[in-house]
Design brief:
about 200 residues, globular, alpha+beta, two-stranded antiparallel ribbon
């Protein structure tokens, strides 16, 4: 059994367990798939923590949180600006642009946790996410709602807009019921599975 906010993520974990993977393999596969199935909520470009309790051992924490750059730039050199996310009953200011990006730790965390705790090959762990990125995931009502809230972020650059552009309505954002494909993420995951994190 596996629980998550996405049927695709839960199914990935179940499939990995049924293929002989352990709970850590399943969690890592679910994380990779979450970056594809729930891209507005999870990302390989982010950071995180994994609290692990391997059988017969004590607990351990894997810290793969983001690292801020060591060099400080003057504010006038930063690509860093606010957008407003409208939640209907409340608004929240976010800052976006290159100045808002930290050095991600998720990929390093996946590989370190897999090295220490995994049973099955990393390629098998990443395979469901790769396939889903190629085939696409149907945008459900919840993710369409989040997309509407985060619209100012999604349309801020040509690159992000091209990923979230509606296949059936060019010039508009993807809609509920449409399929979100991410061939760039599939290629990146394939390269990671074949070549490792370095």
């Amino acid at each position: 059994m596996a629980a998550s906010g996405s049927a695709e993520v839960s199914q990935t974990a179940v499939d990995i367990l049924e293929a002989g993977g352990n709970a850590f393999d399943a969690a890592l596969g679910a994380l990779c798939t979450a970056a594809i199935a729930e891209p507005l909520l999870a990302s390989l470009g982010g950071g995180g923590f994994l609290l692990a309790l391997p059988n017969g051992q004590g607990p351990r924490v894997y810290d793969f949180f983001c690292q801020t750059p060591k060099r400080h730039r003057p504010d006038d050199e930063l690509d860093f600006y606010p957008i407003i996310a409208n939640f209907g009953t409340a608004e929240q200011e976010f800052h976006i642009g290159m100045g808002s990006i930290a050095v991600p730790g998720v990929v390093a965390g996946i590989f370190e946790a897999h090295r220490a705790l995994g049973l099955i090959p990393i390629a098998d762990i990443m395979a469901p996410a790769i396939q889903l990125a190629r085939d696409g995931v149907l945008v459900d009502a919840f993710h369409h709602y989040i997309l509407r809230i985060l619209r100012p972020i999604m349309v801020a650059t040509k690159g992000s807009f091209s990923l979230y552009e509606s296949p059936g309505r060019p010039g508009g954002l993807i809609r509920e019921g449409e399929r979100l494909r991410n061939p760039q993420a599939a290629a990146a995951l394939e390269a990671l599975a074949a070549e490792g994190p370095d």
